[in-house]
Amino acid sequence: MPNLGPTELIIIGLILVLLFGAKKLPEAARGLGRSLRIFKSETAKLRDDDETETATATVVQAQPQPAAPVPPPITSAPVSPLSAEEQARALEEQAARLRAQAGVPSTPKTQ
Question: Gene3D superfamilies per the record (predicted)?
Fold first, then answer.
């Protein structure tokens, strides 16, 4: 890629001013700076999370895990042309059954 000289930069600047207007350029630059700052902080957090995950993963692997109860397999109902209300009702019933198996109190219906 060839180097940009001062005349090329001036031409690019004039084109940007013509496209966006003099009032919106500072706002766009601020927005770009903020989003770049957010992006950098998020990538730094991801790196920190990866480092802590690898450290905790080695600790977790060293400890034996107790056997957890295996939940019953989720079986899907046979495909039939149901209305949206019937599908929603069936899903609510299935969710209530799963909550009862897990011991989570169900919330009362509001209709």
Answer: 1.20.5.3310
